[in-house]
Design brief:
Elements: E1 5-16, E2 24-36, E3 51-54, E4 61-64, E5 75-77, E6 83-84, E7 103-104, E8 107-109, H1 115-122
Antiparallel strand pairs: 1-2, 2-3, 2-4, 3-8, 5-8, 6-7
Length: 128
């Protein structure tokens, strides 16, 4: 699969200094990683949207540079897969208030959100 997926929880700007260096402006994103469900076929050949799920464990959250973000994507909850409470225990700031401390078990990656997204997945666009 050509892309990595994450949900952005925070956008941070700070001024930092490493020992022996000058202060510099640093921007970073606080994210929660999703992984492609390899048990579910996806893509144009399969005639299905890819499915992604939240990672669990110590690598579920991270910080990345905004420069590493290709673009935003549209994730559609898999309503038929239902909810799970097993990934994060109890209440977490990693969920919106209206999610009632639950995560959808899976999400679909909308390859058809707009023509740029469509062309990225087909590989036929200039610069894609």
């Amino acid at each position: 699969h050509p892309y990595l997926y994450a949900r952005v929880f925070g956008i941070f700007h700070t001024v930092a200094k490493l020992t022996g260096q000058r202060f510099q402006h640093v921007e970073f994103l606080w994210i929660r990683w999703l992984q492609v469900d390899e048990n579910k076929q996806g893509g144009f050949a399969a005639k299905r949207m890819y499915q992604v799920r939240y990672l669990d464990g110590e690598h579920a959250f991270g910080f990345i540079s905004p420069d590493d973000v290709l673009r935003a994507c549209h994730l559609i909850p898999s309503f038929s897969a239902g909810f799970t409470e097993g990934i994060l225990d109890g209440s977490s700031i990693a969920r919106r208030v209206d999610e009632n401390n639950q995560d959808y078990d899976a999400y679909y990656v909308n390859m058809f959100a707009d023509r740029d997204m469509f062309m990225r997945f087909t590989g036929d666009g200039i610069g894609h």
